[in-house]
Amino acid sequence: MISKYLHLVSSTKSQITIFILLNICGLIFLLLPHNIFSNMLDLELFYSKENVVTNFNALGPDGRSVYVLSSLILDTLYPILYTSLILGAYVKLFKSSEVILLIPLTAFSFDILENIQITRLILNFPNVNETHVYLASMATSSKWIAISIAILFLIYGIIKKRKK
Q: Helix axis angle, 74-93 relative to 49-72, nearest 10°?
């Protein structure tokens, strides 16, 4: 079953479709009301309780409601798409190594954990707990580190393939 999925997402047609869907999803994020995109914790590294309070206050109650919905729906679809795109590229670039597939899967896992933590923070706002902020911040930062590593391997694979 996993090999069928990897075969599917590595096809050129699937890669193009996933890339288009990923960009549409990103555009929807940009167009969310209440300045959600500019106040998303998902885009920050190592944020503090003060960042959370500032961002959530800037969103207001309606913005926080939309943020929760976008975090649970749109920001669940987004990691599925980017993980599928990277996995498909890895299958083409690193045919002999299955261990490398764990990198985008790690990013995906941290992204989902981040969404859960941010949703929890929003639902408990204004009662923001330092421990919950720390867990959310670590999930977000770990996601970005894993994504950076995944992209570096992607660049390495492309360069290696071009030299052959």
A: 80
